[in-house]
Write a structure and sequence with these properties.
Layout (H helix, E strand, L loop, with lengths): L1 H5 L2 E5 L7 H4 L7 E6 L8 E5 L6 H16 L3 E4 L5 H11 L4 E4 L13 H10 E5 L11 H11 L3 E4 L8 H10 L3 E4 L10 H8 L3 E2 L3 H9 L20 H9 L5 E2 H8 L3 H13 L3 E4 L3 E4 L1
C-alpha cells in the first residue's frame, strides 16, 4: 500500500463499476488491476497495435501511420510498452494528442524495459499504465503471455504489424481470437522472416490491413452507400459443417457469440475461428457487443 501511494497507483477490482467492462467479459479476467493514470469510458473504443521488438523500417512506418490515424479518429491505442513496435505505437499516438494505454507484465514500481521509463510517464499522463502484477513484481518471462490476454481483452481488435513465425505478438492474436476480438494483420514481403507470422495470420483468416480505414470499416461496419455489398446466395457454397450451422443459426437475425456457443454446443474459440473465415468470405458481419449477423 505504501508503494501504491508513492507511485500514484489506484486499484480496480473485478466486479466493480470502475473495472473495464470489456476486460471483465474475458475468460480468466484479472481479479485486480493496478492502474496509474486513468481509464475512461471512451477507452472502450480501443485498438491494440503489437509487433516485433526487432522491427524493420517498413514496420516502423506502418506502426506510426496506424497509431497516428487511429488516435486522430478517436481510438485509444493499446500496446505493451515493449521495445520495438509497441513503443513506436505509443509514441505515435502521444504525438498527435491521442490516448494510449500500456499493459505491463511486471509491477508499476519498476518500469520494464528501463529505457522506456520516460515513455511510461507520458503514457500515464495521456492514458494509463495497467498491470495485474503487484507493485514490486519482476517481469518474469512467463508473465508476458498472460499480459497479452489483457492487451486483447481491453481492445475491440488487435493488429499484428510485424511478427516472425514464433513472435510473442502471435500469442496476443491467439488470445484475441479466443476472446472474440477481430484479428488484423499487416502483410509483408513473402520472403521476409519478419513478416512470416503476419502473412500466416492472413492465410488463416486474419483481416488484411492496408491502413486505419480498413480497421475502422471492419469494426464499425461502414460500407460505401454508392456501392452496397451484394447479398450472398441463399445457400452459400464451400461452407464446412461448423460454418453451415452458424449460417443457419443466424438466419433469424443477429446473435451474440456466447449465445451461439451455448445453443450450438461448441467452444468459443472454434466458433470465433469459423466466424472469422465467414467474415473474410463476406458472409457475416461483426457488430458491436460481440454479436454477428448475416451480410
Amino acid at each position: 500500500m505504501a508503494r501504491i501511494g508513492r507511485h500514484g497507483v489506484h486499484l480496480r477490482a473485478l466486479g466493480t463499476p470502475e473495472y473495464p467492462a470489456a476486460l471483465a467479459q474475458i475468460h480468466a479476467a484479472p481479479h485486480l488491476l493496478y492502474v496509474r493514470g486513468t481509464i475512461e469510458p471512451a477507452d472502450a473504443k480501443a485498438v491494440a497495435l503489437v509487433g516485433s521488438r526487432k522491427y524493420t523500417g517498413y514496420g516502423r512506418r506502418v506502426a506510426e501511420r496506424l497509431a497516428t490515424d487511429l488516435a486522430r479518429a478517436g481510438y485509444t491505442v493499446i500496446s505493451g510498452l515493449a521495445r520495438g513496435i509497441d513503443g513506436i505505437a505509443h509514441r505515435a499516438a502521444l504525438q498527435v494528442g491521442g490516448r494510449t494505454i500500456a499493459v505491463l507484465a511486471g509491477g508499476l514500481s519498476r518500469i520494464y524495459p528501463p529505457e522506456h521509463t520516460d515513455l511510461a510517464e507520458d503514457v500515464a499522463a495521456a492514458g494509463a499504465l495497467v498491470t495485474e502484477t503487484p507493485m514490486a513484481g519482476e517481469p518474469l518471462p512467463g508473465m508476458f503471455p498472460a499480459r497479452n490476454r489483457i492487451i486483447s481483452g481491453l481492445s475491440r481488435g488487435v493488429v499484428i504489424i510485424e511478427a516472425g513465425e514464433k513472435s510473442g505478438a502471435l500469442i496476443t492474436a491467439e488470445h484475441a481470437a479466443e476472446q472474440g476480438r477481430v484479428v488484423f494483420a499487416v502483410p509483408g514481403p513473402v520472403d521476409g522472416s519478419s513478416s512470416a507470422g503476419t502473412n500466416a495470420l492472413i492465410r488463416q483468416g486474419g483481416v488484411l490491413v492496408r491502413g486505419a480505414e480498413d480497421i475502422i470499416e471492419e469494426l464499425e461496419g461502414v460500407r460505401s452507400a454508392a456501392a452496397p455489398a451484394a447479398q450472398p446466395a441463399a445457400s452459400p457454397p464451400e461452407l464446412d459443417e461448423v460454418q453451415r450451422r452458424l449460417w443457419d443459426f443466424l438466419a433469424e437475425g443477429a446473435r451474440h457469440l456466447d449465445e451461439m456457443a451455448q445453443r450450438l454446443g461448441m467452444p468459443v474459440p472454434q466458433l470465433s475461428g469459423a466466424l472469422m473465415m465467414m467474415e473474410m468470405k463476406k458472409l457475416v458481419r461483426r457488430l458491436p457487443g460481440n454479436r454477428y449477423e448475416r451480410r
